[in-house]
Amino acid sequence: MPGVAKKPTIIDVANLCGVTAATVSRVLNAKKNFSTSDAVREKILETARRLGYVPNIAARNLVRGATHIIGVFASPRTHIAEGINESLLDGIAALLHPAGYEVFFEVSSNEAGREGLPYWRFDGALLLQMPRPETVEELNRRGVPYVCVNERLGKPHATVLADDTMGMKHALEHLVQLGHKRIGYANARGGYFDHYSVTERYETLLDGVRKHSLTLVEGHETPFQSASYFLEQTVLEGKATALITYDHHIAVMILGAAYDLNLHIPSDFSLICFNDVFPVSQLAPPLTAVAVSGREMGRVGADMLLNSLNKTKSPAGKIIRVSEDLIVRRSTAPPKTTVS
């Protein structure tokens, strides 16, 4: 447009709309306690859009003393679309965006010399599964408030965890109601053994086996490695009539190995996994699963962080558990009766 520089400024928007730069700033930053007509507001928004004008975030932050940016940090190996992460991030954004906060998810690596945090400022952080130790140390050093979601470490304002005790109890009770007496458990793979869920699921399993007088066949104590070996050990040799797996990845591997060994689900053994995520419901047969609500965990974690940033009174270090449900599908059934 005539008279407009290649990089539009707030003055360009104000001149074209016939208002002051202060009015443009208030409209674009959605200032409260400020009123203008809907027609003027729409004209400013439309003009800024057409010009491609974007407010200078750094300058805006200097004025108001806050960035309104939240950082999300996790393990360098974390994939956004893996497991419950996609729904968890969706829950975080669904709460923070309407509150006026932008969210960034750090994609980092394990390379030597990598600093714990970006050099630029942000108001708070959410820590997901297994973030780098340097990240936690730097957050504590800078005094940045943070909340742990699906993780338990550092000195967070609050910690939001899945109720894995509830989930394992649901799984065991379902198998008991079906009549199963011999249970196998595919524990987590080695790289996950530091996560709180590994201990809580396993200890609840052991308690439940004792409570219901079940037999837990060999193979539950060590990290999961080979699906074929595990099935040979637990089902073919140990005569387990039902299996529970630490997560859906292991369940998918067991399903494939069962086919190779000519074992059928649920006629030869029932199968339950944790994490009701793709492709659990699309498999043949669809798997009975313990559903961990990632979206709710993300929403609650974001809400607790906002409470911290807004100085809302709540006990520091509070731990919140998000309930788990059992979704029953065709991979579980009563055990076969043995004809003597």
Describe this structure in words.
- With about 350 residues, the chain is of the alpha/beta class.
- The protein is about 40% helix and about 15% strand.
- It has 11 helices and 12 strands.
- A 6-stranded parallel beta sheet has the order 2-1-3-4-5-11, sandwiched between helices. Strands 7-6-8-9-10-12 form a 6-stranded mixed beta sheet, sandwiched between helices.
- Strand 3, helix 6 and strand 4 form a beta-alpha-beta unit.
- Helix 1 packs across helix 3 and helix 7 packs parallel to helix 8.
- The model has no long low-confidence stretch (mean pLDDT about 90).
Q: Rough shape? A: elongated
The total strand number stands at: 12
Q: Can you tell me the residue ranges where pLDDT is under 50 for at least 5 consecutive residues?
A: none
User: Main beta sheet: strand number and arrangement?
Assistant: 6 strands, parallel
Query: What's the helical proportion of residues?
Result: 25-40%
Radius of gyration: 26 Å
